[in-house]
Predict the 3D structure of the following.
Amino acid sequence: MTQLDLQALQALDAAHHLHPFNDNAALAKKGTRILVRGEGCYVWDAHGNKLLDAFAGLWCVNVGYGRKELGEVASRQMTQLAYYNSFFQCTTEPTVHLSAKLAELTPGDLNHAFFTNSGSEANDTILRMVRHFWAVQDQPQKQIVIGRHNGYHGSTVAGASLGGMKGMHAQGGLPIPGIVHIDPPFWFADGGDLSPEEYGLVAARRLEQKIIELGPENVAAFIGEPIMGAIGVYIPPRTYWPEIERICRKYDVLFIADEVICGFGRTGEWFAGQYYGFQADIMAIAKGLSSGYIPIGAVMFNDRVAKVLAEKGGELAHGYTYSGHPVCAAVALENIRILQEEKIVEQCKNDTGPYLAQRWQELGDHPLVGEVRIAGMVGALELVPNKRERKFFAERGKVGVMCRDFALKRGLILRATYDSMLLSPPLVISRDQIDELVVKTRGALDDTARELGM
Ligand SMILES: *Cc1c(COP(=O)(O)O)cnc(C)c1O
């Protein structure tokens, strides 16, 4: 692309395209970065820069870029039957195969799928599903859902309400009624003198306190991301999730795991439930389900929920034109085939994951790094003003952006949330590419320290 073409595209973009999660006035001045190609763990921008994508697009390109099979499958399905719905007692072959495949892959008795186009829509669906579940069992008052402050469950009205992002709540009058939040498990900022394991129990018992305060007869469900992604990759201590599960069982509150990031190998297990050893009643999936090649998400729910919906639920008054879209289903199936046949998840668990963890931990010796977090192929570096204290920068977010921009200059895409540098590479990243990632990250940390006069 010539410089002129690029400037023209940027001008059109500024004039006509409202970007998600962006200060669009600032972006219009700066000019959008336009990506033009991807292969494996790399993407190329319109300037011809080759960038190592340590963020897998947006936590989603698990099998890496440029897998031709996925395009071929989409093309075949489009040619044969581009669309048919799953309303009116109909469906399509790939849709059926995908629901059976997901029932087999997901842990325990999560044997039932409802298809959506995204993670947000999956969580939107879940909110209605859990309230309906209790209402048809003569408990219409059991409808409050408990989420967590700073959680992220998407951008639809229900998704953003279940999530706990204050900035999102401030726009559009959220959360909607009947959704409350407890504090998230974030030992670095909140753990005080407790060990992470002790703290995990303390953080989980906030759920119990909240259920008792609200009355268990009023609480429909709890929802959480096993690892909190968007806020900065908060990886809870091992003790947290089993305790959450115990509490949900004790008070008969449905346990919803939002596995949109963790699902499909991100932790080195197929699902974070297997990583932490918990069994959810309902699960939201998206992102890695298609490795981001095509929009698709799903709600997986267990036999108990399915039985109530079947025997008492009546007609489900919910659905999307593209629920179970055959092309999306075919691409998701092919993506799962690639993950399974190439043993990509096993490789992360046994080889590249441990190697990434070891190399990422090494960055903990850097003067800017206050905490290193990593689980399988997802992690973060918490940048701090003083390594000896678990305290944030006074003005949060400035240093993170600085480090992110330095990384980009070195050909590495990292994301920053406040001053956490986030890591979530394609699962196919090789040892050599991990070395490149770590060298470039250290370079960006050095650049940042220099700029700060440290
Ligand atoms: C990305 C994300 C969502 C929302 O998914 P979309 O496909 O963007 O709607 C929901 N939950 C979690 C944990 C996510 O990371």
